[in-house]
Design brief:
- The structure is a single chain.
- The chain is an alpha+beta fold and 199 residues long.
- The chain has two domains: 37 residues; 154 residues, Butyryl-CoA Dehydrogenase, subunit A, domain 3 (Up-down Bundle), CATH 1.20.140.
- It contains seven helices and seven strands, in the order E-E-E-E-H-E-E-H-H-H-H-E-H-H.
């Protein structure tokens, strides 16, 4: 471990910070930022943030995503009712897309984060866990588009004309769930997967 290289998180300088252990830090000689071999408390923070995301997953699916006022007629739209409305309107491809991106993908993403973090320290299936992490990391930037897509699609398909659409509790819960899952992915250090893998 004493000869291992470490990269500065700020300036990118690759260096040998001496006999630095995974939980310790050194100072970058170029920019003065901290240099660590691994992110501190990576697994514990990933588990905690994934749990926080899971706590918001239920409200995101149960409570209204948007409240629509169409000429005085109020309507609450949840993720599930939006999928049903799209299928009822014959928009099967769009309904399947909304279901996949807004209901199925977050559930798979949360399950993947729990699986990756719960298997930390076991040394099991490192290649599969790395591919799973890469998939979750790839999906992350697209998550916040889902709320806006559902709002736009429902407004166009269900009402066809101008309507007053306001975000509901479900939208805020969904945004919080996405925020916590993105943080959980960012704080996890995938290098830990290979630290514990058999040589």
């Amino acid at each position: 471990m004493s000869d291992a290289l470490a990269e500065c998180r700020l300036c990118g300088l690759v260096q040998r910070p001496g006999a630095l252990q995974p939980g310790e830090e050194a100072v970058c000689p170029r920019c003065g930022a901290e240099v660590r071999r691994r992110k501190p408390l990576s697994v514990a923070r990933t588990r905690a943030l994934s749990l926080a995301g899971l706590l918001f997953y239920g409200p995101a699916n149960y409570f209204p995503l948007v409240t629509v006022d169409y000429h005085g007629l109020m309507s609450n739209v949840t993720l599930w009712s939006s999928v049903r409305s799209l299928f009822g309107a014959g928009q099967y491809a769009v309904g399947a897309l909304v279901f996949t991106t807004s209901i199925l993908t977050p559930a798979v993403k949360l399950a993947s984060l729990f699986l990756i973090s719960l298997l930390a320290g076991t040394g099991r299936w490192p290649a599969a866990r790395m591919r799973l992490y890469q998939l979750v990391d790839f999906v992350n930037p697209w998550n916040f588009l889902e709320v806006f897509m559902v709002t736009l699609v429902i407004g166009v398909v269900k009402f066809g004309k101008v309507a007053d659409i306001r975000p509901g509790v479900g939208a805020w819960s969904f945004a919080a769930m996405v925020f916590f899952t993105i943080l959980a992915t960012e704080v996890f250090d995938p290098r830990l997967i290979w630290d514990e893998a058999p040589a």
